[in-house]
Write a structure and sequence with these properties.
single chain; alpha+beta; nine-stranded mixed beta sheet; 10 helices; about 15% helix; globular
């Protein structure tokens, strides 16, 4: 039996569906990004049928989902899927954040999960899938509120580690978020269910903010421990197939005592900042404001909000600026000093957890392109320290890797260097590539993963006609994974870029000459020469 409760209530920025006192001497944000909206709020509660079908009863922890949305919405609205931390069943724990999202005109789905008796990842996934299925499209009934083309994820703690996998499931497997997608991860733990293949195939149009908090960084005496190794999210952040320009990894500083009418008030930046343990200005500057900007940028296309959303605008109002030098804060302490470490067996990426900042500064990450029936790999360094070299590897499934060969490093140098490797006999179908950078002292780190798909029937392409003078077509033109087609000069200058209409590329304005046509696909590039008459 499904149980629903719908509550309607008016919300201005000074009120809420629940009561929570504001604390501290610094005022809340009342204008611009971070200020509560004026939309009235409705709430719908319903049970996760996956859990009911697996022996859980109504009222058991993690069974009931909560959805909040603007009550006066005239149709589907952009939606944030919320994955909470371990044993955080009660939406009141995040009441102000849920209210905030709904007050800005969006829908938010709070999906708790039991931590025993069933897979919590499956519970999260099934609950979110049910929420979308029952509240969008033709099956929505009386409440068609979720816009499946604009879907973002917010995750805290264990939930923050899970949103990478959940995003891949909903964005890739279900096709949701076709117009807008983002991940907003705070104080994240292990990225369960993720694989390097998932990271390599992640939709490149997704936006990502990874945020950690100063007092969560290294606090072995905390009770409960707010002590999660930042290396876990660091690895996910660096490996995911999202351009550097569309993601950022930031640390919220603070934790200071501030005078409050003669009494010191401590703004805590521990593991529970986002919860209602405290409700103060840090909630506004560390969570509400950047999330507000992220939703406006991604959901509504307001590009002016990008810097604030990602944290490249480091301003934090009355608090210290964001720390964006992740090589400094990620590696401030040895991994073994954390309560929740990166290098543990249950972390899917534990073998790749870096022990120290990368000794090689990568200028250009690994990329791949097809030349004939061969795959050429390229990368470049800005400087190198104690670099023995690179073990280049290939995989057919993104899990099991085999060596392709060794490329010698430059030892220690302040000068940049460009590297190449050739796979003369790639596999038919999907090929995953990466390299392992090895120091002279034996330490190693893993590069990003790139993907090339070769098929004897479809992977190669032809240009016709060639030579051409007005229009050129790509054959075969059934590539499902094409991201962009670029025409550039032999010197590398981009002259034309196409994101659709690959059957008929307009080249009427190109002078006579020889050009390179690059077909960009899921981290790899295939190229052919084009002659314009």
């Amino acid at each position: 039996m499904r149980i629903y409760t719908i509550l309607f209530g008016i919300l201005l920025f000074s009120s809420s569906l629940f009561a929570q006192a504001y604390e501290g001497p610094y005022p809340e944000i009342t204008n611009g990004y971070g200020a509560f909206g004026t939309d009235s709020i409705a709430e719908k509660k319903f049970d996760n049928t996956y859990l009911l079908n697996n022996g859980f009863e109504h009222g058991a922890g993690g069974v009931e989902l909560t959805m909040r949305y603007p009550s006066d919405a005239q149709g589907p609205v952009p939606t944030v899927l919320f994955a909470s931390g371990y044993n955080q069943y009660d939406p009141a724990t995040f009441e102000k954040l849920l209210d905030f999202i709904a007050s800005k005109g969006y829908c938010v789905v709070f999906t708790p999960y039991p931590t025993s008796g069933v897979s919590w990842q499956t519970s999260l996934y099934e609950g979110m899938k049910q929420a979308i299925a029952e509240n969008s499209g033709a099956n929505a009934g009386d409440l068609n509120i979720i816009d499946t083309t604009r879907i973002g994820f917010f995750g805290h703690s264990l939930g923050a580690g899970d949103i990478f996998w959940l995003g891949h499931k909903f964005y890739v497997d279900h096709g949701y978020g076709s117009n807008a997608k983002f991940l907003f991860s705070v104080a994240g733990w292990v990225g369960f269910n993720m694989t390097e293949a998932y990271l390599a195939n992640y939709p490149s149009d997704c936006k990502l903010r990874v945020e950690i908090w100063e007092e969560d960084d290294h606090n072995p005496n905390a009770n409960p421990p707010g002590n999660t190794s930042p290396r876990i999210q660091y690895y996910l952040f660096h490996q995911i197939n999202i351009p550097d320009s569309e993601k950022n990894y930031v640390k919220v500083l603070g934790g200071a005592d501030v005078d409050d009418n003669g009494t010191p008030y401590h703004y805590s930046t521990d593991h529970h900042l986002v919860t209602m343990d405290q409700y103060n200005a840090l909630d506004f500057y560390a969570i509400f404001r950047p999330l507000d900007a992220m939703m406006d940028w991604v959901f509504n296309g307001v590009t002016a909000a990008k810097a604030l959303a990602l944290g490249t605008d480091t301003d934090m109002g009355p608090f210290p600026d964001l720390d964006t030098d992740y090589n400094t804060f990620v590696f401030a302490y040895d991994d073994s000093t954390y309560e929740y470490q990166c290098d543990v067996d249950y972390n899917p990426f534990h073998a790749a957890c870096p022990a120290a900042p990368l000794p090689v500064e990568i200028l250009e990450p690994l990329s791949a392109r097809v030349e004939g029936r061969k795959v050429l790999l390229n990368w470049a360094t800005a400087q190198e320290t104690n670099n023995k070299g690179f073990e280049v590897e290939r995989s057919q499934d993104g899990v099991h890797w085999a060596s392709l060969g060794w490329v010698e490093g430059q030892g220690s140098t302040s000068l940049g260097h460009r590297y190449q490797a050739l796979d003369a006999h790639p596999l038919d179908g999907v090929n995953y590539y990466r390299f392992e950078q090895v120091d002279y002292d034996g330490h190693a780190s893993i590069s990003n993963v790139v993907v090339i798909e070769l098929d004897t029937d479809e992977a190669m392409f032809e240009l016709a006609p060639n030579p051409a003078n007005e229009e050129v077509s790509i054959y075969p033109h059934s590539f499902e994974n094409i991201e962009r087609v670029v025409i550039r000069t032999l010197a590398g200058k981009i002259l034309k870029s196409f994101e659709s209409g690959y059957n008929h590329l307009n080249i009427r304005d190109l002078p006579s000459g020889v050009y390179v046509v690059s077909v960009q696909m899921r981290g790899g590039v295939m190229e052919k020469m084009l002659m314009v008459m």
